[in-house]
Design brief:
The protein is of the alpha/beta class. 33% of the residues lie in helices and 22% in strands. The protein has 27 helices and 39 strands. The strands form six sheets. Strands 1-2-3-4-5-6-8-7 form an eight-stranded mixed β-sheet, sandwiched between helices. β1 and β2 form a beta hairpin. α6 packs across α11, α8 runs parallel beside α9 and α22 crosses α23. The longest helix is centred in the N-terminal third of the chain and has 23 residues. The N terminus is likely disordered.
């Protein structure tokens, strides 16, 4: 219990789980008076040298006064945090607020002295760096803007923690002590450091799960059959290079091995280190297994058991307890309700999954939140015929099940610098942290293709078992934001695999120009039409006739690839009939040899009922072994071959670096599927080129950021959330160079005449009642009223049509130059962050949903692409002989609105409608702004795992 002098209750929101540098986890929480014994025990395990570095003198033990000081905090001026594993302290940090003279102080003093102590056994794991991020966030919350620290020169590790953090700092040396001062406001460098540490730690945590040196399967049955026994067989059949153990507490004491694997009654009985435990016991027995694994030092768990959040509220609470228990021991979890993990690397060969066959090694990484979809993905890549014909290989496969801990974000961190993965394919049913996923996806897509299909898009809720934040954004908006981040968004599993096959096997196209050649005129025309539908620029198809030989195909493909007006080639082929018909293997070799001569252009094949060609193009190698690894309960097939007997897939990435055997040519059974995959590759290649020069966020001298902040503070003092009135809206927008045409209320005809005289003729008369606002098609707007007579007549007509003036809410506004009516919106979504949207006003945006979206802050390149991204964009650029409008002025408006919501997160919604864009300049005729306390931004806070 905290004493009466403590001014704040226990801040539970400061508790967090973090991933450390080596991939393990720790829990960070505030220190309380109940931690006295833990603190003393922790201090006893710290070396004398570390104690000396902390207190600048020999300090063998803590006095009772010290213990009280270090455990009694008011959580405002005095704060202590501890990093714990298994409930025990491994490190501590504290700050004490000080004044200008260095003495203890209270607010408004905004400086604090900070000090760390890390147990020697845990030094080098990044514990201090994680604690610094968290104590800095706490200090900012309590109004502290600067930390001071005194460090002995010999304590180089702690000096490095401070200097590497990326904060703006000052450094001095006096009386044999290094004095450091640093501001706590996040900087671009501090965020970059934080993100880099996050990537290394999370990638390492996944690596510990995918590259274990030893695996224990817990729940192996004593008789054949069952999940545990099956997984054990899958691991051994795949030729896992590490040690394997079978565990079941029901094993007889004299049982030494099962299926040739050492058998144990408990994980604790295993004398060697266990890196990964595959848990295949019923849910009610899992806590006991987790406790044993944690006590033994197991690094990670794959939990196959069901009966968790997917089963209802009771299961959800069981899932929360599972995650809390595992993290308390520093372990991460894949699952529960998981299908398992696969790593085909020759150095690992791990099949800790329910898949009875080991996929062939390759360059595609697969992630699926659903076990059923995971099976479908592996099956599609296994299959020689039907679906996507041809084969490719897998580098790693993760099926996360309920995704209680390890998520797609973690796996992306791993794939980002995994040398064995060239293409990432993901099936997602929910995105737990869209802001972070978008950030990671953008970075990953800049290095290797990322293809995503999202299930449950229209269900309105996340699947059972998935705990995710709620987003108010429509699915179409989320898809647009993912595409902005370089994600290749597809709608089906078939499209996911189609795109993956192309991107894993072929270089990226330099443009949209496509050559089409083949032995079927009809199939060539279908391909031509499909190219036009995908926005590609096909050349006229070349018909080689049905009598074409392999040499004819070789010559035609060689000629097309050498043509500078072609960026990609689609070869169409149908079966030939007759004794002189070209064989599948002969045709495949002809195409391969021609493609090798010009390795920089992608080649695709569209075939019709030509299974032999697909297999020949794929080098006659199946994704799975032809067999020899016979699942128990099945009849052995002839000619057994183990996975290791198959050649590795060519080591070539999507940029076309051959670097190995000849690249494989993907074959598709339908023209539209091949062309759709090619279209996605073209768009992705264009994104890669543009991402290399992302643009800049321009500065505008007339922006009054500080004045806007003062106005917002004054307005928010009125209440927690409010929609601004017209005057406040115009004032705030004006501080960012966005000037709204004045609209004067006209409750009577005389008032309308007075407003028009004040504004100057010609004017517009508008009804602003909610059901008439922005609905010129209903007749609630009268334009170009040149004098008093026209104005009074229009006023009378509106009243006769729609009712009394108090129902119409009429306003008078000076006429703006004619142009194209558009709408600009910005909104702060609690999950995705700030989003800027643009479209044409009226039916185009409201009925057809023709809006484009970008994440804030928007760069000049983003603004230009936003204007051009809508389907109705031609209306802005002189469609059918009309005058082009001033798009540079429109782009500047978008940039100014983006700056406003980025600079002031209290601005949670902005709508400018209509914005009339003329040939020269634009006019903002309507605007609304909503303010609210800013939502928390976890991307600016310290690194944490999702709370559970």
């Amino acid at each position: 219990m905290q004493s009466a002098s403590d001014r704040h209750v226990y801040p539970a929101h400061w508790e967090a789980d973090v991933v450390l540098r080596d991939g393990g986890t720790a829990r960070i929480r505030p220190i309380t008076v109940d931690d006295a014994e833990r603190l003393v025990s922790f201090y006893e395990q710290v070396s004398d040298e570390s104690k000396y570095y902390r207190f600048f003198a020999p300090y063998p033990r803590l006095s009772a006064k010290d213990v009280r000081r270090f455990t009694h905090h008011d959580f405002v001026d005095r704060v202590g945090l501890a990093a714990t594993i298994g409930g025990d302290f491994i490190a501590t940090v504290r700050y004490d607020r000080i004044g200008a003279d260095g003495a203890p102080a209270s607010a408004p003093a905004d400086e604090a002295e900070v000090a760390f102590l890390v147990q020697d056994a845990h030094q080098g794991r990044g514990v201090a760096s994680a604690l610094l991020e968290h104590i800095a966030a706490v200090a900012r919350e309590r109004g502290i803007r600067r930390f001071a620290a005194e460090v002995l020169p010999a304590n180089t590790k702690m000096i490095k923690v401070f200097t590497d953090a990326g904060y703006t700092q000052k450094r001095s040396f006096e009386d044999g002590v290094v004095h450091l001062e640093f501001d706590l406001e996040p900087t671009d460098r501090s965020l970059a450091v934080q993100y880099a540490r996050e990537q290394r730690a999370e990638a390492r945590s996944v690596q510990r799960l995918l590259v274990p040196g030893s695996v224990a399967v817990v729940g192996v049955g004593r008789t054949p059959g069952g999940v545990g026994r099956g997984v054990l067989g899958n691991i051994t059949d795949a030729g896992f290079t590490g040690r394997v153990y079978a565990v079941n507490k029901a094993f007889p004491k004299d049982l030494e091995e099962i299926d040739g694997v050492p058998a144990h009654r408990s994980v604790r009985e295993i004398e060697e280190q266990v890196d990964l435990a595959v848990v295949a016991v019923p849910a009610e027995h899992v806590p006991e297994v987790v406790a044993e694994c944690g006590a033994h030092g197991v690094q990670g768990l794959v939990v196959l058991a069901a009966g968790y959040a997917e089963s209802g509220p009771e299961g959800r609470e069981r899932q929360r307890a599972l995650v809390r228990q595992a993290r308390s021991y520093g372990m991460r979890i894949i699952g529960p309700n998981a299908f398992g993990v696969v790593n085909t690397s020759q150095d690992v060969r791990l099949n800790a999954s329910l898949a009875p066959e080991m996929p062939r090694p390759g360059r595609i990484g697969l992630f699926a939140q659903s076990g059923a979809i995971g099976i479908a993905l592996l099956s599609r890549l296994h299959r020689r015929g039907g679906g996507v014909t041809g084969v490719t290989g897998v580098s790693t496969f993760v099926s996360s099940g309920n995704r209680a801990d390890v998520s797609g974000n973690d796996v992306l961190q791993y794939w980002y610098d995994d040398p064995d993965t060239d293409v990432a394919l993901m099936y997602l049913e929910s995105i737990g942290n869209p802001r972070k996923f978008t950030r990671l996806a953008r970075r990953t897509a800049a290095a290797k293709p990322l293809v995503v299909v999202q299930g449950a898009r229209h269900g309105g809720a996340a699947p059972q078992g998935h705990t995710v934040r709620v987003t108010r954004l429509p699915h179409a908006t989320v898809s647009a934001l993912l595409r902005q981040a370089g994600v290749i968004r597809v709608d089906t599993i078939t499209e996911l695999v189609d795109a993956g096959l192309l991107l894993a096997r072929q270089p990226l196209p330099a443009g949209p120009r496509v050559a089409i050649l083949g032995n079927s005129e009809s199939l060539g025309l279908l391909t031509y039409d499909a190219c036009l539908a995908e926005g590609l620029r096909p050349l006229p198809p070349l018909d080689l006739t049905t009598q074409a030989s392999a040499a004819d195909f070789h010559a035609a493909l060689s000629h097309a690839l050498a043509d500078d007006t072609c960026d990609a080639v689609v070869v169409t082929a149908i079966p030939a009939i007759g004794d002189a018909s070209t064989g599948d293997a002969e045709l495949a070799e002809a195409l391969r040899s021609a493609a090798e001569r010009v390795p920089g252009k992608p080649v695709l094949v569209v075939h019709v009922e030509l299974g032999g060609l697909a297999e020949a193009l794929s080098a006659a190698a199946s994704t799975a072994p032809r067999t020899g690894i016979t699942p128990r309960g099945t009849v052995p097939r002839p000619h057994p071959v183990r996975p290791l007997d198959f050649p590795e897939e060519p080591q070539s990435g999507p940029d076309g670096d051959p670097g190995g055997p000849p690249r494989l040519i993907p074959a598709y059974p339908a023209a539209e599927r091949a062309v759709r995959a090619l279209g996605e590759a073209v768009k992705y290649a264009q994104w890669r080129r543009e991402a290399a020069e992302p643009g800049r966020v321009p500065e505008y001298d007339d922006i009054d950021e500080k004045g806007a902040a003062r106005l917002i503070d004054r307005l928010l003092a009125r209440g927690q959330g409010l929609t601004l009135d017209t005057d406040d809206t115009c004032e705030l927008l004006g501080m960012y160079g966005v000037h709204v045409h004045r609209a004067l209320h006209a409750p009577t005809a005389d008032a309308a005449v007075g407003a028009a005289e004040a504004l100057g003729y010609p004017v517009a008369l508008k009804a602003t009642a909610p059901h008439l606002r922005h609905r010129a098609d209903l007749g609630g707007v009268r334009l170009d009223l040149a004098d008093e007579e026209q104005l009074r007549r229009a006023y009378t007509e509106l009243a006769e049509l729609f009712g009394k003036p108090e129902e119409l809410r009429p306003v008078v506004q000076r006429m703006a130059p004619r142009g194209v009516d558009t709408v600009v919106r910005a909104v702060i979504d609690p999950a995705a962050g700030a989003v800027l949207s643009f479209g044409l006003a009226g039916a185009a945006s409201q009925l057809l949903g023709d809006m484009a979206h970008r994440l804030v802050p928007v760069t000049d390149r983003d603004a230009a692409s936003l204007v051009r991204a809508i389907r109705t964009a031609p209306l802005l650029f002189g469609w059918r002989g009309s005058a082009p409008v001033d798009t540079p002025a429109l782009e500047e408006l978008l940039l100014r609105v983006s700056r406003l919501v980025h600079d002031h997160p209290e601005v949670v919604a902005v709508t400018l409608e209509p914005v009339v864009v003329a040939a020269h300049g634009l006019s903002v005729l309507g605007a609304s702004v909503r303010l609210a306390p800013p939502p928390a931004r976890d991307d600016l806070g310290p690194r944490t795992l999702p709370a559970y």
